[in-house]
Input
Amino acid sequence: MTRRFLPALALAAGLAATPALAFDIEALSDDERSAFRDEVRAYLLDNPDVIMEAIEVLERRRAAEQVAGDAALVKTNAEAIFNDGVSFVGGNPDGDITFVEFVDYKCGYCKKAYPELQALIENDGNIRIVYKEFPILGEESMIASRFATSALLIGGDEAYEPLHDAMMTMRGNATPDNLSALADDLGLNGAAIIEGMSDPQVDAIISDNHALAQRLQITGTPTFVMEDQLVRGYVPLGAMEEIVAELREAKE
Output
């Protein structure tokens, strides 16, 4: 391989080229460009691992950019995320780590994550949890979220928490009758909660959550805001514990 093609080959393979190696590809003749392309192709066929290395570098770079971008979004919207004054706050309200979950009661992965998140909260003892009602999966999702939000407005966190837990594990359709019966079984007034679903504040809370999700570029559930990180999708308990440990270490 001729030395004149090495700089461009390094670039094409995703390797870092130094200023000393830089050259103007536009200055090459048609024959030289053709030869250069042949050299690049031959090199990559002989060294396919270079392509994988370049892809890995690109993926790491994109991941780092995503993390930085998410952190900026969280910082800009921090008050609405962590302290909106209306969302349920549970776990340890004075905990050193805050998890915020955008949740939909009809989401299978939300239901899958539920026991793992509860285990984390119980085992750790120092996690503050905030739930954001984010119905995106159709009419039943909206009915369930409106019902839970109505219960929150009527009875506060004390009413919302057991109802949320029951709705995350309930089987069957999220119809007003089923939800009302579920609330009655918990000692809540299901009929009053149904009536409260028409409160304009219910609409406002859910609408605000959707607007916040849009600003944060959240399109699915579950999505977690873990301090300054956005974690999209189901997260098993072990991974949650690792994230908590990393967040605490970063605070030291």
Notes: Confidence is low (pLDDT under 50) at residues 1-21.
